[in-house]
Amino acid sequence: MRFTKMHGAGNDYIYVDCLKRPQPEDPSRLAKRVSDRHFGIGGDGLVLICPSEIADARMRMFNSDGSESEMCGNALRCMGKYLFDRGLRTNKTLRIETAAGVVTLDLDVADGRVRQVRVDMGVPILQPDLIPTTLPGNSSPRGGAVVDAELRLGAEKLQVTCVSMGNPHCVTFVDEVTDHWVLDIGPRIENDPHFPNRTNAEFAQVISPTEVRMRVWERGTGETLACGSGACAVCVAGALSGRTGRKVLVRLPGGDLELHWADDEHVYLTGPAVEVFNAELTTDNGLERMPSPSGTVPKAGLGPVLG
Question: Residue 55 sits in a domain of what CATH number?
């Protein structure tokens, strides 16, 4: 099985081209095995690049725990780079089908290669039952939206804002983003019964009305270096609660993302897309690295991945 390792602001996935090849028989199991950073390839999950009857391609995304997710802004940017850099699609505007709908990508190209991508992430969903969350909406400017609602986790009492960008997010603004918030509180929010489909948990520190520092505990994966849809949710939550404007720079451990909740109500996400290497899982479960468009990389060994 040939694959490509790519990342967007450190949010890394293993990409498998299924445009002309069959999809893996059990992508959930495969995602768990290849995502392991000690006994597998290592990544935040698995992305299948599939044919689409309604768009340029279709993205199927699996978290490192094997669960399938609806949306990932960072993975979408990398998928756009994969398609363009290999000449599989030649337009600088691409449409990608996801489980959350069709998303438009605008590619920033230099010297025949994609450097960064702007993703139209669509209109945020604020209606509680569609996020979904059982937390009640309040009398925010977006009547019914869950803005600075109280969430109790044992002795902890949080103020949270809930947003769906095709996948659920729970945003907490804090004075300082620490390990306690992300590693202790994050998994508790993910699995709290107020979120029937579980949720991603973002923790954001406002630096100024145009700049935010953020870390994220991703549903089905744990902490990642970046989360594109999570950054969108923080942008929306900041504007809804009056903490920020509608255009912000979100600083994550893996890099910076530019967000704009525009007048058309769509959220636009701009950030880098980087190819790390190409490789092939051979029949004996070894790993033989293949030449990539950016150059040739040496061979390397890998223990059992698919066994």
Answer: 3.10.310.10
